[in-house]
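Q: I'm writing a short methods note and want an example of a predicted protein-small molecule complex. Could you take the sequence and the SMILES for zinc ion and return the bound structure as tokens? Please keep the output block clean; save any remarks for afterwards.
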Amino acid sequence: MGVIPAEAHMAAAMLPTGKDEPSLTRSVMRYAKHRICGHPDVPPLHDAKCRGCGWTAPQGNAGTVDLECMKHTGLSGHTQFERAATWVAFVVREE
Ligand SMILES: [Zn+2]
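A: Understood, no commentary inside the block.
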């Protein structure tokens, strides 16, 4: 595979129109506004992991995971948790 000379590259962008003079290929870019949002029917799932011993809370909503962490603190004295939340998001086109 070699380098395409500039003249050959320019010629590849020309399309026959059936007329005597050639025309250039033209691309039209269109943009549409989009937004991303959380799925209204799929609640987020929350996780927690104790930084002291690795204990993990059962997945659930934010409130139940908060309670599990506080119970763990009461039983162990560990006070730091890594928290994460996962949710389904989707992109919609705004008209
Ligand atoms: Zn712990």
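A: Remarks, as requested: The pocket of zinc ion is lined by residues 50, 52-53, 55, 72, 76, 78 (CB under 6 Å). Residues 31-93 form one domain.
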